[in-house]
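4.2 Preliminary Data

To establish feasibility before requesting continued support, the project team ran the inverse folding procedure on a target of 833 residues. The structure was first converted into the token representation described in Section 3, and no sequence information of any kind was made available to the design step. The complete token record follows.
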């Protein structure tokens, strides 16, 4: 039955169609209605949580009205759409963002005040949607914001994890992981129980001929799990476009399988099946930049790819277009290799289900997909074992072998004399067991492959993917340097700075065109402007100091230099270099006379970040930071000159407090290891300076803001290989100042030295892979330059303002437009008001 209402009845429908509140009064009406009816509360029992829920529901109504209209518009115009496939969407909180994007935050503030609530307290009730690990997941979230803001017809597809990234607690200086159950009364999702897809696993492939003699592959038996869609509305800023993020949740199939078990009286086993099925979307894997090859992870990947592809194909088929038009209607972006099975799945659908010939299908596939690489770290490159795939996805493994065969044949034809190239570029690694190299599969199945910063993309072309550049030519490989959404990372996180800029620029247009920021450079000498600028930084530091006091109990001096490093804990990101630098500073202060101490610039070293639960070295680094904090913070000889803070459970909403409050932040990865980094951009956009290595986007930030406005140090990417090589052959001498630091650790200054022996040994004895010792001197010398620069507050302020003025390039809107033009070939769909 068609679900469309016939024309004669539509008038009545339109008359009663839902309305949006347009002012404070109407907002209050909606808020109270939701509190009293949807939530069954009243003015006698409305706490802040209920006020939050009511406010969220009122805004949700607005979003979903525009969501409906946007989807109708996009269906009606039927132009090309983008699907962004990501296993992670690190969204953070939604309410503040929704209020700002629809432009009703002031109305909400006043309305809430009338009813007895402070908007900040209400906003703080929300649980972060933390369906991601770090930069990769946050990039996906920034993409969604930009794609909606720029009116692109675009959907995100992901998994609806029951548990997001774990909550971190620090107990006796150690990280403890707490499950993050976040779904209880989450107002932002719409369950679509009618949108389901059956997903098959295991089983076997039967081969037979049909009546025309054509070979048919049939994937039979096995298990079936059901995917159910949950939709999350994504509002653009200053536009009515409201896009969709569709997250899949798993449960037992309502099909014949468990039914038979029920009938057979096997109730317990049917319940067990149910739980097994639900396990697929139960938990986000907490590893960043580390691949572990677990079967459940592979199941997650296929479950999500297959459900998304089914949904995309179903929508395409409704248009009744020819298959040849598929890639003119649809672009699919793969966020890392996690969704690479989507390539194989589309090929399978086209040849096994839709009856297309291999070549025709493969041409559609490669024109549809494109792949973003985020890392060159070898331990992060996904490989799946052939036996695992054979068991779980037998038909897909056959197709992978076929893709590989045709690919290798074409390579052999082009490079007949090159004996090694075939084994180097084969999708199958000839190891025991054999492994499928997902990055190679992703390259071969895509028309564009991009890295996320210039250096990173260059390294891909010259090292990891070198052979593929030879094979396909340079056009398949490109760079799109990452960006961040200025809506969340300036306007929402730092409303006062945003307002100051708006005052000078005559409005908030810069939030939609961040290059307009360059106009504030004209005010760099304006006295009132400068005063206001530094006042805002001070208030942001006070806000962070308050947070630190309430969560750690430590008092920090807001006049001190706030030095921040917040990001996932990883050896390549080198939090160990930072904490060794802190210890060096501590030892230096301890050796000073009272006279000398007067010249010291007080500093607060702030750390935050999670370690993957199985990554022992990262956990050791967290432990050392916390132990150093314990000793330093209560040392009367040091007092305010140095404080060390570890902020627990770093996440998106904490980043919104931390980024605006830094004087300097650290982006100090070993050169050549960080894909891009995006927090570097967040800090500079909020008027913080940075200390960093020549790595990732730091290099382009330097080019934009000028090298006088950044503190760069350390060995360059081109020297890394040689240094490692030398270490390997015993040419290694521990930096003498670092030796002094290690001596302190080894004399139990920060608790039992045994706790840290693996960390010091990795440097002294095991080759110092991340070049901590090689960069140590350069690092502390540069930190001394930071102190000196901070003494001249006037110049520091000029650097801060100038840097912000020159950050326009790093808007996610620039990034999104680049993908749209040079990868997706999609146009925005403008909205009339
Ligand atoms: O992606 C990060 C890069 O390290 C960073 O340099 C870049 O700015 C950012 C956005 O492009 N990568 C990242 O966050 N990766 C992960 O979180 C991640 C998560 C899971 C897995 C691998 C990497 N995994 O294989 O399970």
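Position-by-position output of the design step:
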């Amino acid at each position: 039955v068609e679900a469309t209402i016939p024309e004669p009845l539509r008038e009545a429908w339109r008359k009663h169609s839902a309305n949006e509140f347009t002012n404070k009064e109407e907002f209050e009406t909606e808020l109270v209605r939701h509190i009293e009816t949807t939530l069954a509360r009243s003015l006698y029992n409305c706490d802040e949580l209920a006020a939050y829920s009511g406010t969220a529901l009122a805004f949700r109504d607005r979003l979903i009205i525009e969501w409906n209209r946007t989807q109708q518009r996009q269906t009606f115009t039927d132009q090309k759409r983008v699907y962004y496939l990501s296993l992670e969407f690190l969204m953070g909180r939604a309410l503040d963002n929704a209020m700002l994007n629809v432009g009703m935050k002031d109305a909400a503030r006043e309305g809430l005040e009338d009813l007895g609530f402070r908007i900040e307290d209400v906003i703080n009730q929300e649980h972060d949607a933390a369906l991601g690990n770090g930069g990769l997941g946050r990039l996906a979230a920034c993409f969604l914001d930009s794609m909606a803001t720029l009116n692109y017809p675009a959907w995100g597809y992901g998994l609806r994890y029951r548990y997001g990234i774990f909550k971190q607690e620090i107990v006796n200086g150690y990280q403890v992981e707490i499950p993050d159950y976040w779904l209880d009364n989450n107002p932002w999702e719409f369950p679509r129980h009618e949108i389901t897809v059956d997903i098959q696993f295991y089983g076997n492939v039967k081969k037979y001929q049909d009546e025309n003699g054509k070979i048919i592959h049939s994937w039979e038996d096995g298990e079936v799990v059901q995917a159910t869609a949950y939709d999350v509305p994504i509002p653009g800023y200053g536009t009515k476009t409201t896009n969709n993020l569709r997250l899949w949740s798993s449960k037992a199939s309502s099909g014949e399988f468990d039914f038979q078990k029920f009938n057979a009286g096997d109730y317990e086993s049917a319940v067990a099946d149910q739980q097994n099925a639900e396990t697929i979307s139960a938990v986000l894997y907490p590893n960043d930049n580390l691949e572990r090859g677990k079967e459940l992870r592979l199941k997650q990947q296929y479950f999500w790819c297959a459900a998304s592809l089914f949904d995309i194909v179903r929508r395409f088929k409704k248009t009744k277009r020819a298959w040849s038009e598929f890639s003119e209607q649809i672009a699919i972006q793969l966020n890392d290799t996690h969704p690479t099975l989507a390539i194989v799945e589309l090929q399978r659908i086209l040849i096994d289900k839709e009856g297309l010939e291999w070549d025709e299908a493969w041409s559609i596939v490669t024109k549809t997909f494109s792949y973003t690489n985020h890392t060159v770290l070898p331990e992060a490159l996904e490989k799946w074992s052939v036996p695992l795939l054979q068991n779980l996805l037998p038909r897909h493994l056959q197709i992978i072998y076929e893709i590989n065969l045709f690919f290798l044949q074409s390579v052999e034809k082009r490079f007949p004399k090159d004996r090694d190239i075939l084994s180097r570029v084969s999708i199958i690694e000839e190891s025991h067991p054999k492994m499928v190299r997902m990055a190679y599969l992703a390259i071969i199945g895509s028309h564009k492959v991009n890295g996320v910063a210039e250096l990173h993309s260059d390294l891909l072309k010259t090292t990891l993917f070198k052979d593929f550049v030879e094979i396909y030519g340079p056009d398949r490989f490109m760079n799109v340097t990452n960006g961040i959404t200025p809506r969340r990372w300036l306007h929402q996180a730092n409303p006062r700075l945003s307002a100051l800029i708006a005052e000078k620029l005559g409005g908030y247009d810069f939030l939609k065109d961040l290059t307009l920021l360059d106009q504030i450079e004209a005010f760099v000498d304006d006295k009132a402007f400068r005063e206001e600028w530094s006042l805002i930084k001070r208030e942001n530091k006070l806000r962070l100091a308050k947070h630190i006091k309430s969560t750690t109990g430590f008092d920090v001096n807001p006049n001190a230099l706030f030095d921040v490093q917040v990001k996932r804990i990883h050896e390549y990101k080198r939090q160990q270099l930072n904490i060794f630098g802190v210890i060096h500073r501590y030892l230096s202060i301890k050796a000073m006379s009272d006279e000398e101490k007067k010249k010291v610039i007080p500093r607060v070293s702030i750390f935050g970040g999670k370690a993957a639960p199985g990554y022992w070295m990262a956990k050791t680094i967290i432990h050392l930071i916390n132990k150093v904090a314990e000793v330093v913070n209560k040392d009367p000889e040091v007092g305010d000159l140095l404080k060390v803070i570890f902020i627990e459970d770093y996440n998106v909403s904490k980043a919104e407090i931390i980024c605006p409050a830094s004087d300097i932040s650290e982006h100090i990865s070993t050169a050549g290891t960080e894909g891009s980094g995006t927090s570097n951009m967040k800090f500079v956009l909020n008027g913080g300076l940075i200390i960093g290595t020549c790595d990732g986007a730091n290099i382009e930030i330097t080019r934009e803001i000028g090298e006088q406005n950044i503190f760069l140090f350390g060995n360059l990417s081109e020297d890394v290989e040689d240094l490692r090589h030398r270490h390997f052959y015993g040419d290694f001498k521990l930096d003498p100042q670092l030796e002094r630091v290690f001596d302190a650790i080894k004399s139990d200054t920060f608790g039992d030295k045994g706790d840290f022996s693996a960390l010091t040994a990795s440097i002294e004895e095991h080759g110092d892979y991340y070049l901590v010792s090689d960069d140590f001197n350069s690092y502390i010398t540069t930190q001394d330059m930071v102190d000196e620069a901070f003494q001249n507050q006037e110049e520091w302020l000029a650097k801060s303002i100038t840097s912000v003025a020159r950050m326009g390039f790093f808007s996610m809107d620039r990034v999104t437009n680049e993908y749209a033009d040079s990868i997706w070939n999609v146009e925005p769909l403008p909205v009339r008001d």
